[in-house]
Amino acid sequence: MFVKNAWYVAAWPREVTDKPLARVICGEPVVLYRDGAGAAVALRDMCCHRALPLSLGKIVGGNIQCGYHGYTYDGTGACVDIPGQSHIPEHARTRSYPVAEKFHCVWIWMGDAPANPAEIPALWWLDHAEWKPSTPDMAHLKCDYRLIMDNVLDATHLTYVHPTTIGASSIVAFEPEITHDERVVRISRWMLDRPPPPAYAKAGDFDGNADRWAAVEYWAPAVCVNFAGCVDVGHGGPGKDIRQSPRRVELVSINLPTPAEEGACHYFFAFARAFKHDDPEIDHFFGPGMVKVFEEDFGILEAQQRMLEKYPAEKRVSTIYDRGPAMARRMLERMVEAERG
Fold first, then answer.
1. From the first residue on, what is the mean pLDDT of each consecutive set of 10 residues in the chain (341 residues)?
2. What is the pLDDT of residue 62?
3. How far apart are CA 26 and CA 10, in angstroms?
4. Given the DSSP bridges, would you call strands 21-25 and 184-194 parallel, antiparallel or unpaired?
5. Where in the chain is the domain with CATH 2.102.10.10?
6. What CATH number belongs to 7-118?
7. What are the DSSP calls for 220-231, one per residue?
């Protein structure tokens, strides 16, 4: 179930080079590369001649050449050269997709409606002086992209999946506040005067309890931003200025699950923090260390997918903590229904 008229992350900029990159997005085979001017290009990964994937070819003079018979296409998808033939039929082309580079992401628009780059989600933390981003990462997962959104929107799993890093038993003791509008679901909770999770205690030099927050915003159809951190007891809570705390851990994780096919996705993710910019140990934890934390979820997500495929009609139980994910699912369903008309 995909929304096509939306911006999705197709790749990190470092992945798109003068070598063809094959990627399946919303069920469509796509090839990404950079043209002669260095701009990112996205075409349907199929030659109009004998249907060979263009990603098996090469870049010649900023255009992409099919590796079977040398048909060459420009960035608009038009065939501009057929070896041994001067006449190029008007219908000799492949589909091109709108592409934009913004907030250190390569975005793609898979739909037929006009693409407006102004609608690209504002991931400003990746491009702001007060926030230090880590090197972003990506994993190909054999799971529905909606399972990732369920996972991110329900913080109670942190207690059981990440007990030695970012989990803490206090999460399940605090019911979240949930708000929403037409395209955003926000779930937030404060955990005041409680032991911080191990990673936060070490990063913020907390030797006792702390005021902790955990919030997430879902921006339909496929962006989730986590807001998390700890401050000294008495400095946290609604309306408080956390920047006044003597000690502070403040970070965001940006989750961008791009659907590939039914039951598979590309999970792009990145982290940024607003404290201790010059600490190499913190750099490591909120870089490679946080990737390992995310990897703890991967096996669970793929195991879920296998069971859901095996028992698709099995009735499942929901709790009060599933309200946010359910709200996001309904929002996505409405978008799909509206798009299909």
1. 95 98 98 97 98 98 97 98 95 98 97 96 95 94 96 85 74 83 92 90 92 94 95 94 95 97 97 94 87 90 96 88 91 93 81
2. 97
3. 10
4. unpaired
5. 7-118
6. 2.102.10.10
7. TTTEEEEEEEEE
Inter-axis angle of helices 145-153 and 290-310, nearest 10: 120
**Is 3.90.380.10 the CATH classification of the domain at 122-340?**
yes
Is this model's pTM higher than 0.85 or not? yes
Question: Which regions of the chain carry the CATH code 3.90.380.10?
Answer: 122-340
What are the tens digits of pLDDT across the range 287-326? 888 888 889 999 999 999 999 999 999 988 888 888 999 9
Determine contact, residues 3/33, Cβ cutoff 8 Å: no
Helix or strand run (H / E) with residue 217: strand 210-219
- Count Cβ atoms within 10 A of the Cβ of residue 71 and give its class: 0-12 exposed, 13-18 middle, 19 or more buried: buried
In the chain, the amino acid numbered 184 is V
Residue 215, token pair as written in the block: 């919030």
| CA 265/CA 252 separation, integer angstroms | 22
Residue 286 is given by DSSP the state I
Amino acid at 255: N
Taking the C-alpha atoms of residue 338 and residue 323, their distance in angstroms, rounded to an integer, is: 23
